[in-house]
Amino acid sequence: MVVLNRIYTRTGDAGETALSNGARVAKHSPRVTAYGTVDETNATLGLARLHAAGEMDAQLARIQNDLFDLGADLARPDMERDDEAGYPVLRMSAAQVDRLEVEIDAMIARLEPLRSFILPGGSALAAHLHLCRTVARRAERCTVELAAVEPVNEAAVKYLNRLSDWLFVAARIANNDGRDDVLWVPGANR
């Protein structure tokens, strides 16, 4: 259980932070950048939820919880087993990726196929979901960059990839099942 009775510690004043295994790293390290961008994704989802209701809000709440799991996964650099850490190490799972795929398929079943690229916008919820999508894509790029130099749970990368797809489709749902999508008109302003 997490207990936060003091928010500032002064231990990061020199530009370093502690990972969940106790190792100290620079705040600009690829690992901190990756889980920090996952946190940023989560914050944008909180904004989107201001415009969501019902099942969409419940799904976004589940994703926010998943993103805390993902941040915990990325904050634990060594891919050690639970018995080596002395406690259960939280890792993203294939089941979390699979759930996103099932939800994407259910949403796509409600939509007409796209015949054009769409511009981010439409309803307030759709616009916020598009912003979430772009931040999730950045989190994915940061995590892939980290994975090029350090071990990263494969399910973490897959989850971020599916999440941006989920957010794109959810934005279309938020635009009256795609009927209110704003279509790109190539060269319209020449």
What is the averaged pLDDT score? Answer: 90
Biggest sheet strand line-up: 1-2
Beta-strand percentage range: 5-15%
Helical run tally:
6
Number of strands: 4
Give the uncertain stretches in residue-range form: none
Structure summarized in a few sentences:
The protein is mainly alpha-helical and 190 residues long.
Question: What keywords describe this structure?
Answer:
6 helices; elongated; 190 residues; Hypothetical Protein Ta1238, Chain: A; two-stranded antiparallel ribbon; mainly alpha
Q: What would you say this structure looks like, in words?
A:
The longest helix is centred in the C-terminal third of the chain and has 24 residues, at 124-147. The chain has a two-stranded antiparallel ribbon. Strand 1 (16-18) and strand 2 (24-26) form a beta hairpin. Helix 1 (30-49) packs antiparallel against helix 2 (54-74), helix 4 packs parallel to helix 6 (154-174) and helix 5 (124-147) packs antiparallel against helix 6 (154-174). It has helices at 30-49, 54-74, 82-85, 94-108, 124-147, 154-174, and strands spanning 16-18, 24-26, 118-119, 182-183. It has one domain: Hypothetical Protein Ta1238, Chain: A. Helices cover 55% and strands 5% of the residues. It is mainly alpha-helical and 190 residues long. The protein is built from six helices and four strands. It is elongated, with a radius of gyration of 19 Å.
